[in-house]
Amino acid sequence: MGIIETLNHWDTELFLYLNSFHNSFWDYTMTLFTRTEMWLLFYLVIFITIIRKYNRKSILIFLVIALLIVFADQGSGILKHSIQRLRPSHDPYVAPLAHNFFKKGGWYGFVSAHAANSFGFTMFSILLFRNRLYTFFMLIWTMLIASTRIYLGVHYPGDILGGLILGGLIGWGMYRLLLYLEMFMRPHKPEFIIPLQNKQVYNIILAALVVVGFSMLVVNFFLKHQMFA
Fold this sequence. Notes:
Blueprint (H helix, E strand, L loop, with lengths): L2 H17 L4 H10 L6 H15 L3 H26 L29 H17 L2 H20 L5 H29 L12 H30 L2
């Protein structure tokens, strides 16, 4: 067995192990967590924080973030169709053994666009805010988003790792681009290296906890009424 086959075997075994832990509550909760629109409040608070911190320069930051998402999303798509590794939900040997919930996704899974997008944004915002509490929290948030893809049966751990690496590189590259533009426009006032204060981070964390708590309450309400229907 070659190196690629060995790594693929280990990846499959790890996927099946992690994917085996499931129940109805987490099926629906993870489905909500994995959807971008569920985190709109969370993103809104971050964007408001950027606007308050950087004022008119926030427009440049938002343009760079938009470019980041395009690169991460399109980059993951190019790799998927170039490498053509089947998702576990489409692999004829793995799919019967896996717990797939909600959607099967496209045919190919390496690399995960969810992981690339989320970690690209995380890496960029960590470098932008330069706050330890924010860094710690965003790494946990990224792992939550990434874990939903394994739980729902649409990505192998290797797909997630590849997405994290791709997203991290793009996030770092976009931050370097932002610094370059800053130095080009205002070489004597590097405003993009000013750390964020903890009290501003608390609002971001609170928004994320509201999303998590609301999702769990909705799922719990749904399952209770479904049980007694």
